[in-house]
């Protein structure tokens, strides 16, 4: 069991840590109305132990989005010669600056209950020279955050909306055909005026009434989700993504500009099958900037999460032509503040805002007629709103 302080604030981190023999570390929050978990690594030199932990925590009742990246912490302590509690240094790790000492932590072996020790007021023990070796080993094991890994740099789109990534040939043509065949054979669509849809990965309400029960994804979807997690799209703390929504569009159908709600971790991966279409991102609206004013309501007429109407004549800030087999990932501000949608047209016009037009050999003013059907897989992580472990 562990409790840690940050700048005189007690119990900022409080919960249970599990140390594996292979050097991995798992953290589960046990702090009242907070939900969350963490994942990390640990090393040991002589009697000095050090660990690094990526933690997601949020209030169960909050209407705000969780942080787009985990909070990173480091703990360093001397293991007592006899069984007992540890008192150690607690650091905050920023991607922009060196580790910063922000407090201390107190840990003791769990007895099976959730009773935690009080945070000791004793001074921190002197740490021997092995501390520097522990820090050196931890620094070498520290990996960049998922979407900051070098492999994603070529797929990042420049522009006023900064958190968008596009991979043209994520799936091979044969994979696209196979997935289309599976979908045609197995999907039981809910018919809507704007599109047909089916949700996978969640079903009925949890007995407590605060979360949805998780249901296993079909094997072909689970394989894709595992691949995305391996590539870093979804952080290991949140592994695996647990919600897949299939949308099917006929020519002339689309989806109104909207924002996905804070029920999701603020990152989405969209895999496109079938015909191409132009996918639009819109400029930020003042009405969308205050997350305290957002709810979880549904617009029955537009068939999207409810939000105020865009001003008449609002044009997309950035657009992409989504090709069959492509992967679109967007997160952080692009997810939270920039609405996205697909125009309800039979034919897409290529405007100057279509960032990948030249890559496909198109120019502003060109038009592309949509084919018979487009199917998209919208892959997200639905966050639990209770501590019943239905989504852990």
Mean pLDDT: 90
CATH class call of the largest domain: Mainly Beta
Domain count: 2
Rounded radius of gyration (Å): 24 Å
The CATH topology of the largest domain corresponds to Jelly Rolls
Distance between termini? 19 Å
Identify the overall geometry: elongated
Q: Decide which structural class fits the backbone.
A: mainly beta
SSE string, helices as H and strands as E:
EEEEEEEEHEHEEEEHEEEEHEEEEHEEEE
**Number of contiguous helices:** 5
Low-confidence stretches: none
β-strand number: 25
Work out the helicity level: 10-25%
Q: Return the CATH architecture of the largest domain.
A: Sandwich
**Strand fraction band?**
35-45%
The biggest beta sheet is recorded as: 8 strands, antiparallel, barrel
User: What is the CATH H-level superfamily of the largest domain?
Assistant: Alpha-ketoglutarate-dependent dioxygenase AlkB-like
What does this 3D model show about the protein?
With 392 residues, the chain is mainly beta. The chain contains five helices and 25 strands. It has two domains: 2-143, no CATH class; 148-380, Sandwich (Jelly Rolls), CATH 2.60.120.590. It has an eight-stranded antiparallel beta barrel with strand order 1-2-3-4-5-6-7-8. It is elongated. The two termini are 19 Å apart.
